């Protein structure tokens, strides 16, 4: 049996639901979710750093919760809703969270940024009332070698504050903005 035949026999068809779309991928069972996202689905916004679960650059949302995509097999994600950083701003406009990172200089080289964005997106969905201390604790799970973290904490806190204010306005029936922007600044790239 040739190597190519052996490889073909080892492949399996898996179905992944990513950013609202269904995909079928023929892959080896041992391949990680981050590799399939990047190489098979060409969703290269998710980065790969340590490949050991330490840096968090590969963070995506699995059924709403942040996970390290380098630590799980793609086949394990079958049947789950997967969200990558590409889902935050499908059009040309930044999401409120991305805009907050931009305004607070929450990135420099940007390598860690997709991971921090998805970590924050999942966390704020679960804890919209999070305090700055809680945000500080959560971002400590990912590594950034450039920013010193303070600007990342400020960005997430600003976004959370704006989302809460927009929600209050909607509940009180006085707000006109449905999108909970993080600031009044222009949101175009
Ligand atoms: S690449 Fe996954 S945690 Fe570092
Ligand atoms: S912005 Fe460079 S590693 Fe975080």
Structure keywords:
37% helix, five-stranded mixed sheet, DNA polymerase, domain 1, disordered C terminus, Ubiquitin-like (UB roll), alpha+beta, binds FE2/S2 (inorganic) cluster, 189 residues
Characterise the protein shown here.
A five-stranded mixed sheet has the order 2-1-5-3-4, sandwiched between helices. The chain has helices at residues 3-10, 33-40, 96-103, 113-126, 132-139, 150-172; strands at residues 12-18, 21-27, 59-62, 65-68, 81-83. The chain folds into two domains: 10-87, Ubiquitin-like (UB roll) (Roll), CATH 3.10.20.30; 96-172, DNA polymerase, domain 1. The protein has 189 residues and is of the alpha+beta class. 37% of the residues are buried. Residues 183-189 have low confidence and may be disordered. Strand 3 (59-62) and strand 4 (65-68) form a beta hairpin. It starts with a helix and ends in a 17-residue tail after the last helix. It is elongated, with a radius of gyration of 18 Å. The chain contains six helices and five strands, in the order αββαβββαααα. The structure holds FE2/S2 (inorganic) cluster (FES) (2 copies). Residues 107-112, 144-147 line the site of one FE2/S2 (inorganic) cluster.
């Amino acid at each position: 049996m040739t190597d190519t035949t052996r490889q073909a026999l080892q492949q399996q068809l898996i179905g992944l639901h990513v950013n609202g779309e269904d995909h079928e991928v023929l892959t080896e069972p041992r391949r990680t979710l981050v590799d399939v996202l990047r190489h098979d689905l060409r969703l290269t916004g998710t980065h790969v750093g340590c490949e050991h679960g330490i840096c968090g650059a590969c963070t995506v949302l699995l059924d709403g919760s942040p996970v390290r995509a380098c630590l799980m097999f793609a086949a394990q994600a079958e049947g789950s809703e997967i969200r990558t950083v590409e889902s935050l701003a499908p059009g040309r406009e930044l999401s409120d969270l991305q805009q907050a990172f931009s305004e607070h200089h929450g990135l420099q080289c940007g390598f860690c940024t997709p991971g921090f964005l998805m970590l924050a997106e999942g966390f704020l969905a679960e804890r919209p009332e999070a305090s700055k201390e809680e945000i500080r604790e959560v971002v400590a799970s990912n590594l950034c070698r450039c920013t010193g973290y303070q600007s990342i904490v400020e960005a997430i806190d600003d976004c959370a504050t704006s989302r809460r204010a927009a929600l209050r306005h909607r509940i009180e029936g006085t707000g006109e903005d449905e999108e909970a922007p993080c600031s009044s600044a222009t949101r175009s790239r």
